Every structure is written in structure tokens, then in C-alpha cells.
Batch of 2 targets.
Target 1
Amino acid sequence: PRSIYLTRHGESEYNRIGRLGGDAPLSENGLKYASRLQNYFEKEKINELRVWSSQKIRAAQTASKMAHIAQHVEYWKVLDEIDAGICEGLTYEDFESRYPKQFGERDKDKYHYRYPSGESYEDLVARLEPVIMELERQSNVLVISHQAVLRCILAYFTNQNRDDLPYLKVPLHTVIKLTPKAYSCEVEMFKFDI
Ligand code: F6P
């Protein structure tokens, strides 16, 4: 049976200080995770593994470690993180203090809330449709992307509803292995201690 593997990039310098979005490089811990991920896939010996990464630096750095193991490493802009518009580079605290009304609106309806000059989860689901269609057709694929994007992909393969989707747990330094069964997917999580 084939599997789809999902992982966020390793911890970035922005993750460390709690800033949203941006294009920061990996932190020291993030670099360690990239190596651990490489070891994991070396041991798994997966047939014809394809790797699809976002075009953000933190994802590409994580994916670069997979170059020897994978058949292809491709960089897709559609896998980039949700565009937080005017909130890019802010922490959640900055967001709440600068735009309290917006912050409240997002809390009320996180799925539909669209960042000014940015995207909503609903927008993201539409953006990811072609990726999901392609994932349905492929054999073994590792997707290296971001929290919000991976929530959308995970929700699709595990039939979760819109209200739960923006809150699904997709932690850092964890591989989520999805193995399609008749009507849903088996989900396994592998957490790496860094
Ligand atoms: O904090 C990391 C991050 O990937 C941000 O870049 C992004 O805006 C956020 O997570 C998405 O999570 P949430 O929708 O819960 O804010």
C-alpha cells in the first residue's frame, strides 16, 4: 500500500519567537530535525519516494536533505503557508493589540476569516485542490509544508469538517503518515525529540 507523508519544515527562527509567516531560515533545532527526517526515510526505504516542498526557505532547507533519498524533489508555490496579509511577521500578541477587532473575528470563525491583503483557510482549501487531486493519483509522496496547509490536506484525507480543520494538531518535528484504506485513511504520527 502506498502512503502520503506530511511534515512541517523544521523549526524556523520565526517559530522560535512566535512570529507568523515570513521567510525565515531554520533554527539550529530545525536543522537537526532535517537530518533526523533524512535518517527516518533512509531507514524506511520507500519505493520511488517523491518529495514536494513549498518554496519557503525553511521548507526548502528541510527538503534539501532528502535529495539523495528521493526520486524527485519538487518545489511548489501552492504549498506555501497561508498568507497572513497585514499580520505577516507579527506575533499573536502583536496581532491582538494592533488589530483587536480582526483578532476577535478570526477567533469567531477561523475557517472563513480572511486576513486583510491575505488569505483564509477557505481560500487555502481552494488553492490546494490541484495538489490534493495530484496526491490522490500518486504513489509514495512526502509533503514538506506548513501548519495551515497541512491542516487542509490532513482534513481532506481524514474527512474532518470545516469547524475542526483550522484547529487540527500538526506539531513541528512530527511525521504524519497517511495510508489510504477503503473510505478513509489510517493516520500514524511519529514525533522526533530534538
Ligand atoms: O506560526 C506558524 C504558522 O505556520 C504561521 O506562519 C501561520 O500563520 C500559522 O502557523 C497558521 O496557524 P493558525 O491558523 O493557527 O494561526
Target 2
Amino acid sequence: ATPTSIMVGTGRAAEMGVLFRRGDALQTLRDAEVIALDKTGTLTLGEPTLAYFKTSEGFARNEILSLVASLEARSEHPIAEAIVDAARRDGLPLAAADNFAATPGFGVAAMIGGRKVEVGADRFMARLGHSVAPFANDAERLAREGQSPLYAAVDGRLAAIITVADPIKPTTPEAIAALHGLGLKVAMITGDNRRTAEAIARRLGIDEVVAEVLPDGKVEAVKRLASKGQRVAFVGDGINDAPALAAADVGIAIGTGTDVAIESAGVVLMSGDLRGVVNAIALSRATIRNIG
Ligand code: ADP
Ligand code: MG
């Protein structure tokens, strides 16, 4: 492609809300064979709400939800916001948390009113030595519906199962179908529960799922997809997507996401609408083809 054609191509892209930050991105995007997308905030709205809350026998709902929300009030994870909002809506009091500790990709813990409260994924409970087997049926059923299961332990005993639901963006199904229409393979990379991720992938017709990835494991996930000799474009929005955006053949950041993600990407979408990815690829093909 000539410099002029690339200028025309990138100019047309800008009109469609797609910003090419790197000169070579138009060509690398044209050559992409796999589009790997982050789930939370990219395929989904990234605004989870509390969907289900059930306590173990001997634990009172409001008391446990109040403890859990008091702990989550200290966390900045979107899951935390969903739980705090639910407790507020129910008019439950929040107490101060001491010795707060967050383990990225696992969960959070603190002392609330002299009680030890721990909230997180099943792998967090496993690490703490709390069996989640009593909630196995609930977890499986709700994850199959696309909800993300979490657990709470109070003073070392499993106290509740909690699920949050993060709706798929209304434009995502059309975007995925269009990517398939362009002959691309579509993959999802997420830190979320495997069953939840698979349920959402099935709903969207996504071909491959890499789930339960730790916050610093997305690069490895991108490399694993690339190891099959396919050129990989990665689409993400979060801080922990930045290394994968840089490692992919081409990184596509969502402009409504974090600054670090944007700075690591070759392409930036001005909105969270994934049809922008489709436009960018279609345009990259048209531009390069026209020049030969
Ligand atoms: P993602 O946001 O894609 O789920 P993260 O790496 O941020 O990925 O978190 C992985 C998992 O760790 C979450 O899905 C959740 O189960 C658990 N987790 C992380 N932070 C919290 C938190 N503040 N409260 C409860 N669970 C958490
Ligand atoms: Mg995200």
C-alpha cells in the first residue's frame, strides 16, 4: 500500500470512529485471522448487577449481605460495585473494614466488626481451604445462564453463594456474526469462571474460549492462540488488557476503556460498539486491495 492510500484509508476510518494509532495497523489488521476479545466490558457492558444471593444454613441473608458489602466497599472491582449497590438498595448498613486485602483475579478479604470476611471466586475459596461443594448445583445452574458465581466465607465457614450478571452489549451478536461473515475465527479471553464464559460464548457463537485467566495471563493466552500459526487481533478495554494489546499482532482498544489500554493498542474504537472492529477490518481489506 502506498502512503497516500493509507492516509485515505485511515481518514475514512476516523470518520467511522476508528482511529489507527500505528501506521502498520491497517495492514496487520487486514492479515488478522483470529479476533480474540476480552469478555468483561468488551463483549459485555462491564456493568454487572447482583443476580442471586443465597446463604448457607445458619447464616442470615441481610447480615451476610451487609458484611459482604462492607468488605466490597473497599474494592474497585465492578463486581464490588454490584454488591454494594444491592446492599444499599436493601437499606442495609455498611460497617468499617480493617486489614483489607485484595488478591487480583481471586477475591478480597477484611475484618468487619471483628469477623473475618472473605469474598471471591471458587479458586479463592479453594486457596483458603473452604469447600464450595454445598453450592455446586446452584453454581452450575447459574453459570449455565451466563451468571458469574462468587462465594463468601465468614469466620472461615462458607456463608453464601452470590452471582452477578453482566449483560451482553446489544450490538455484540451482530458484530460477532459479521466477523464470522468476514471469514474470521472468534475467541474470548476472560478471567471469569469457565462455565460462565462458555455459556456466553455459546450464546454468541464464539469459536474458542480461554477462561479463568489470571490478570497477568492474557499475554500468554494471546500467544497460545498465535502459536497455531494464526495472526491474532486482540480487543480489550481494561488495565490488565494492556500487555495483551501490545503482544497481539494488532491490538484494538475500546476508547471508552482505560488510558493504558488505549496507549498499548494500534487501533482505537471511539465507542464500545464492536461493529467498529468489523468496519475497521472491512476497511483495511478494501484499502489494501485497492492499491494492490
Ligand atoms: P474478570 O473481571 O474478567 O472477572 P479479574 O481477574 O478481575 O477478571 O477477576 C477474576 C475473578 O476473581 C472474578 O471473576 C471474581 O470471581 C474474582 N474477584 C476479583 N475481585 C473480586 C472482588 N472484589 N470481589 C469478588 N470477587 C472478585
Ligand atoms: Mg474488560
